[in-house]
Write a structure and sequence with these properties.
The structure holds two protein chains of two kinds. Chain A is mainly α. Chain A has helices at 4-7, 35-65, 69-77, 79-112, 118-126, 133-144, 151-156, 165-176, 179-191, 194-201, 206-235, 238-244, 254-263, 267-302. In chain B, 77% of the residues lie in helices and 0% in strands. Chain B is built from 13 helices and no strands. The longest helix of chain B has 34 residues, at 55-88. Chain B is globular, with a radius of gyration of 23 Å. Classes of the chains: A mainly alpha, B mainly alpha. Chains A and B meet through helix 1, helix 2, helix 4, helix 5 and helix 6 of A and helix 1, helix 3, helix 4, helix 5 and helix 6 of B.
């Protein structure tokens, strides 16, 4: 970007290997530290990373396989684990598409039009991120629980929401609410509305404009939001724990199943199920890194 | 840009998209959220005050807010270093480290909780040395809360500081160096002031997340009353005793803190935007 490298104090460039390319800061005397300072910062920060991020990740897999592959496999094909997996997939399959549609609608309104209270609306959309998961569970208990607002009506009509699947789905929708919207809003704002206006003026219908003009422009940002939304939907613990009631085989999601196994001192099984969720997290990070690159490129090409 | 076009646009779907957004937001978030405040209004102020200042609840604020502040401070220091290393230095495995920084966002909190516990118990990989050599108990003690909160807060600091650090023009540091500043002085008086708003935003985000965190903490904390009980756990405890109004009262305290933090964070972001010209 900046031509600073060539202008001042450019150090002679040594031949570089492919996997350790020097940064523009390292090639510039004015922006690099003495060798020992650099070594110290590298050692301290990477040790911190190893202890707090890398080691816990490794521990999940080591603990999962401690009692051998057989025990690992049994924990995963256990009927209760499978029903927990099913419920986790259901919660994600409902909440992700709903929040995807919401995210597109919100981003369309906010990025393509001017109206009063826009900033307030954006703040409200971000709200679920700043609320403790436990409180999310609590508010649904207060609304749908036996002595909540709709409690009597729900009992009369024999509808169960709290301590049942609908409550789990609702809590999951709440905690994953902003993911797609907050990814799309800045992206669509940056892209402006000229392309869509041109399409409409040329006679395209509303959905054609969206499908052929907007969607190709936002597809990577959309995917990015969906991946993060999905990871949180499958991994949510606090909010789901409050509304689930922990009924084994019925209202347990995978993270709740991990908790139950762990509290029964069945550590190998707990970590085996946890390793599935850790794998999901790793896949999420890989896809995310790839997509991030594409989003970045799309934005820079757009400019 | 064109103020005259505010009320007219050739693009379709304004009413539909905004209407859907507001209805969905209200049904999922806003209306259920008011339940907390309406339920609390059933209590008189004295009753409310007695619930939220009960000794065991007060002790939980001390743990929650104290550990969250300490964790956010630790993350600010090491998060800044990690962001610095990721932007400015080259080292083998850099891309893997960069990708794994987001692990706490992607890893379910329950998994993080049991993994951290297994590391820090008395016979764990780290616990056996920390307890054996230094005699310090981490798991099932207040320090365990701190460890879990450091884990979940780290990416907030790294990911807010990193882009600002990437955008800094090298010319500033070149000017400082050519005027005779030492490297440390350049960092202290040129680079750090540019990073400060982002660093504070990262601190506030990590703190806000830590205060409400539940899943990763309860496994490692040991949840001893007055010693290592966090405030979200107090809400759960009240709920399990069917004390809904008590749980709700504590939730109101936490929500008010969260909203205040949200205001602070918004203010910091506006400030950061002005400083770096990123809000265009």
């Amino acid at each position: 970007m900046s031509g600073g490298v060539a202008t001042w104090g450019a150090a002679p460039t040594a031949p570089q290997s492919v996997w350790r390319r020097e940064t523009r800061f390292e090639r510039n005397i004015a922006t690099s530290e003495p060798r020992w300072v650099k070594a110290l910062i590298l050692i301290v920060s990477l040790s911190f990373f190893s202890i707090f991020i890398f080691l816990p990740l490794v521990a999940v897999f080591v603990e999962a396989l401690r009692k051998g592959v057989e025990v690992y496999w049994q924990a995963i094909v256990d009927p209760e684990a499978l029903s927990a997996l099913r419920l986790t997939l259901i919660a994600a399959a409902v909440s992700v598409p709903l929040n995807l549609i919401f995210g597109i609608a919100a981003a369309w309104a906010i990025a393509k039009f001017e109206f009063r209270g826009k900033q307030l609306l954006i703040t409200f959309i971000d709200l679920p991120f700043s609320i403790s998961p436990v409180i999310v569970g609590l508010i649904y208990v207060l609304v749908f629980g036996a002595n909540g607002w709709l409690g009597e009506w729900l009992i009369e009509h024999d509808i169960k929401i709290i301590f049942a699947v609908p409550g789990i789905v609702l809590a999951t929708i709440f905690v994953t609410f902003p993911f797609v919207a907050r990814e799309l809003i800045p992206l669509m704002q940056a892209q402006g509305k000229e392309e869509e206006e041109a399409a409409v003026v040329l006679g395209a219908k509303g959905w054609q404009t969206f499908w052929y003009v907007t969607l190709p422009n936002i597809k990577w940002g959309l995917l990015y939001g969906v991946i993060l939304c999905n990871a949180r939907a499958m991994g949510e613990f606090g909010a789901v724990s409050v509304v689930s009631g922990h009924i084994r085989g019925l209202t347990n999601t995978l993270p709740l199943h991990v908790e139950i196994l762990y509290n029964e001192y069945n550590f190998a099984a707990a970590f085996a199920v946890a390793s599935l969720l850790a794998l999901l997290a790793l896949v999420t990070l890989v896809v995310k890194t790839f997509v991030e690159h594409r989003v970045h490129r799309q934005l820079t090409i757009g400019k | 840009m064109m103020t005259s076009a505010r009320n007219f646009s050739v693009l379709p779907g304004f009413g539909l998209s905004l209407g859907y957004t507001i209805v969905y937001l209200s049904i999922i978030v806003l209306i259920p959220l008011t339940a907390v405040f309406i339920r609390t209004a059933e209590l008189s102020f004295v009753e409310f005050w007695n619930v939220v200042t009960a000794p065991r609840v007060l002790a939980s604020y001390k743990i929650s807010f104290g550990a969250s502040l300490a964790a956010a401070a630790i993350n600010s220091i090491f998060g800044l270093m990690l962001a610095w290393v990721l932007v400015r230095y080259s080292f083998p495995g850099k891309r893997i480290v960069d990708a794994l920084i987001d692990l706490p966002f992607a890893l379910p909190t329950a998994v993080a909780g049991i993994a951290l516990t297994s590391l820090y118990v008395h016979n764990g990989w780290l616990g056996q040395y920390i307890e054996g050599i230094f005699g310090i108990k981490v798991a099932f003690a207040p320090l365990g809360v701190l460890v879990a909160l450091v884990f979940i807060g780290l990416p907030f600091v790294v990911r807010t500081v990193q882009p600002i650090l990437e955008d800094i023009e090298t010319e500033l540091e070149e000017a400082a160096a050519s005027l005779g500043a030492r490297r440390w002085q350049t960092f202290r008086y040129v680079v750090l002031p540019i990073l400060l708003p982002a660093l504070l935003t990262g601190f506030a985000l990590a703190f806000a997340r830590a205060v409400g965190e539940y899943g990763s903490v309860i496994f490692i904390a040991g949840n001893i009353p007055f010693v290592s009980e966090i405030t979200p756990l107090m809400i759960i405890t009240k709920l399990e005793q069917y004390d809904y109004t008590g749980a709700t009262a504590i939730a109101v305290v936490m929500l008010v803190v969260s909203f205040l933090l949200l205001l602070v964070i918004n203010g910091l972001q506006v400030w950061a935007g002005k400083r770096t010209g990123r809000n265009r």
